[in-house]
Amino acid sequence: MSKTLLLVHHTPSPHCQAMFEAVLAGATAPEIEGVQVVRRAALEVSPTDMLAADGYLLGSPANLGYISGALKHAFDVCYYPILDSTRGRPYGLYLHGNEGTEGAERAVDAITTGLGWVKAADSVVVSGKPGKPELEACWELGATVAATLTQ
């Protein structure tokens, strides 16, 4: 039986795009079988998308010390409809910011704690242009969360 991993992202910059592509490559690695990765832009995700998923990857820029308005919107739209149905599901987070990402990390921690989601891997937080080590960490994040669904 196939599991679904939902990748909810806001990707407005080349740096966020590079991180998104690395996370996606890890999540869809050939050695991870039985996981379907569904991608949704944060402004387009619905409660139905969230309910249909077995796990989540979240990606956002950190704007002015907080998650993007798009990712906040995704949670605003989905939070109450999924509140009691998604407890215990794994998630992973990647953020890109030039400075002050702590507020964005705290926001996602608070929201996911409220939902009862379980962090499957350490968050990947990148400042400035992501280099090879940062992109490898993004790949590992995607692969780890996807592999969690196969257990």
Automatic annotation (TrEMBL):
Gene3D superfamilies: 3.40.50.360
Domain NADPH-dependent FMN reductase-like: from-to ranges: 49-122
Family matches, as SUPFAM superfamilies: Flavoproteins
Lineage: Bacteria, Bacillati, Actinomycetota, Actinomycetes, Mycobacteriales
MF term (GO), any: oxidoreductase activity
The protein's name in its UniProt record: Flavodoxin
